[in-house]
């Protein structure tokens, strides 16, 4: 079985005098907002310029394997990071930054009375789920339903497989009955949220590490250490990502 070796950064375990350097950071789209702010803060503290490449975590792996460009990979979940590590693209010892919590999203007032994951398999429920070839959350959803033994029945109800969060939310606003989405990605109050019990959920953890082909491994690792600092995790928490570790999200 493939396993990841986790690393933890001590406070101020990053440089402050790397002016004139540039890093290309490839990040999953699910954590766009905190990553923008963290990159800005790092640039201002160190003088290193960060070029932030935003794409779905799984699409990032394909791009990295094809082009071998970039210095740091920030995945939307440890499964995606492990996949990149298996391909020899990243350091097998990532920093774990924050949690991403899948929830059920339904129409306001929940007219179809969808209260459990099993309800996604009921006949007549119009489900929209993200494209699992692009989205870490979609892969987590598949695992959730597979563990319950209802994946095939749920797939019969899936009407759309959008490739972006915006398209997923739009589909819900246009009348789909239910979806699964990471809580921090919900930007509207026009839909209702239903929590998934922790024993049935597939909580994701954002993982970050330097690439194996970076030409500046020291600065790349420095940025990873900064991502793993309390200053960075406070930004993630402000944007709705509970910082790692938190025993409340460990089964």
Structural notes for this entry:
The chain has 251 residues and is α/β, with parallel strands linked by helices. Helix content is 33%, strand content 20%. The strands form three sheets. It has a five-stranded mixed β-sheet with strand order 2-1-3-10-4. A three-stranded antiparallel β-sheet has the order 8-5-9. Strands 6-7 form a two-stranded parallel ribbon. β1, α1 and β2 form a beta-alpha-beta unit. α1 packs antiparallel against α8 and α2 (57-67) packs parallel to α3. It is elongated, with a radius of gyration of 19 Å.
Low-confidence stretches: 1-12
SSE order, as H and E? EHEHEHEEEHHEHEEEHH
Radius of gyration: 19 Å
Strand order of the largest sheet: 2-1-3-10-4
Largest sheet: 5 strands, mixed
Separation of termini?
20 Å
Short structural description:
The chain is α/β, with parallel strands linked by helices and 251 residues long.
List its traits.
10 strands; 8 helices; five-stranded mixed beta sheet; three-stranded antiparallel beta sheet; 251 residues; alpha/beta; single chain; elongated
């Amino acid at each position: 079985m493939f396993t990841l070796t986790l690393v933890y950064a001590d406070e101020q375990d990053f440089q402050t005098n790397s002016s004139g350097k540039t890093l290309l950071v490839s990040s999953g789209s699910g954590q766009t907002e905190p990553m923008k702010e963290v990159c800005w803060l790092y640039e201002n503290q160190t003088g290193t310029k960060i070029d932030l490449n935003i794409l779905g975590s799984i699409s990032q792996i394909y791009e990295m394997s094809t082009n071998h460009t970039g210095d740091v990979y920030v995945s939307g979940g440890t499964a995606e990071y492990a996949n990149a590590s298996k391909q020899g693209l990243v350091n097998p010892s990532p920093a774990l930054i924050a949690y991403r919590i899948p929830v059920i999203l339904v129409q306001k007032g929940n007219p179809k009375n969808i209260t459990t994951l099993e309800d996604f398999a009921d006949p007549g429920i119009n489900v929209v789920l993200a494209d699992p070839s692009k989205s870490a959350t979609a892969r987590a959803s598949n695992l959730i339903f597979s563990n319950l033994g209802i994946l095939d029945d749920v797939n019969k109800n899936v009407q759309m497989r959008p490739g972006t969060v915006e398209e997923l939310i739009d589909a819900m606003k246009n009348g789909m009955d239910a979806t699964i989405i990471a809580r921090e990605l919900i930007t509207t109050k026009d839909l209702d949220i239903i929590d998934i019990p922790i024993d049935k959920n597939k909580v994701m953890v954002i993982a970050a590490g330097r690439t194996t082909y970076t030409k500046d491994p020291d600065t790349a690792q420095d940025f990873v250490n900064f991502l793993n600092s309390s200053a960075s995790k406070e930004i993630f928490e402000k944007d709705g990502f509970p910082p790692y570790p938190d025993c409340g999200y460990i089964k």
